[in-house]
Amino acid sequence: MELFNPLRYAVLVSLVAVLLPLVLPIGILVYSIVDNPECLVVKAIAEEEEYVGNDTFRVPVVIKYCSMVPLTNIKVVFNSTTIEIPRITRGEYRYVVYLKPGDRLLEFEFRIMGLYRVKIKFGVST
Amino acid sequence: MIPKVVWKVLRGVISGLIYYAIFLVIIPWILGLVIRYQIELVSLEKILYYAGVFIALGVLSETLKPFIGLVFTVLSILIGSLFLITILGVGSLQLAMNISGVPVEVSLEFKELLMVIIGIGFVFAIIDVFEKLAMSEE
Fold first, then answer.
1. Residues in chain A within 8 Å Cβ distance of B112
2. What is the C-alpha separation between A111 and B101, in angstroms, rounded?
3. Contacts with B, A 67-126, CB within 8 Å
4. Each residue of B11-49: pLDDT tens digit?
5. pLDDT tens digits for A8-49?
6. DSSP secondary structure string, A78-102?
7. Which residue of A74, A81, B4, B43 is surrounded by the most CB atoms within 10 Å?
């Protein structure tokens, strides 16, 4: 069974070379969130909300992110509006949304380095 | 001296156990380690059934004539991939949890990773097939 062993080792090395860049982003992100649960936070700042008429409030939304792995195709879905962000890296990002009374965060969706899609649905009974 | 047939059967059992370990133990375990979530492996009652399938295919592949045996080697890989896809839910994982008291459903898709692992599995299968072909011609 040792006829093709050199080829097997070569394939194994290429497997490791391909898997490392695929596995590292998800591994790093999971470890950063386990290390610091406040690593990825989406927060509407209620103190700064402002009534703009027609039953609508202007609310600042802050996204805080601490990991070095970039997130892409971010989608923050509220009842009446959606924020779409192409890419975020480590830092704090501020957006302004127009919400109606009773609106809440329904979904938060992103891709880890453009590879793995993560979708978080809030308020879904377990 | 151990008869040749017993030796071949033993080799078949070992190769079956190796395929079982790779597809149903090692790969789900590594993926579980990376995403920090215990992937539910085969339940205890089904372990013998799954292991039996791989052992049977391994024994058939080693004891039959090389060209017929090849079919069973390929079947081991195909069935292993099928089991893997069944366990990992076609590369998508769903978790229900509570974040600050709010019930939350998290879904993670890792199709690309699964496809790479299965693809490399097929490359190893093709190498196995070529090796058996080359050895049968010697």
1. 22, 115-116
2. 25
3. 115-126
4. 888 888 887 887 777 777 777 777 666 666 666 677 778
5. 888 888 888 888 888 888 888 888 888 888 888 888 888 888
6. ESS-EEEEEEE-SEEEEEEEEE-TT
7. A74
Q: What is the ipTM of this complex?
A: 0.74
Kindly provide the residue ranges of all beta strands, DSSP E only, lying in chain A, ordered along the sequence.
Answer: 40-44, 50-53, 56-65, 71-78, 82-88, 91-99, 105-112, 116-122
Q: How far is A107 from chain B (nearest CA, A)?
A: 9
Q: Are strands A116-122 and A56-65 parallel, antiparallel or unpaired?
A: unpaired
Question: Is A9 within 8 Å of chain B by CB?
Answer: no
Domains and CATH numbers, chain A: 5-121 (2.60.40)
User: Is residue B10 pLDDT above 80, yes or no?
Assistant: yes
Rounded-to-integer distance, Cα A35 and Cα A71, Å? 18
Chain A hits for B127, CB-CB cut-off 8 Å, are 4, 7-8, 11
Is pLDDT of A117 > 70? yes
- Between the alpha carbon of residue A123 and those of residues B100, B101, B115, the distances in Å are 11, 10, 32
Least Cα distance to B69 among B138, B11, B4, B2 occurs for B11
**Phi/psi zone of residue B91: left (φ > 0), alpha (ψ -120 to 50 degrees), beta?**
left
Candidates A4, A22, A118; nearest CB to B112: A22
pTM: 0.72
List chain B domain ranges.
Answer: 4-137
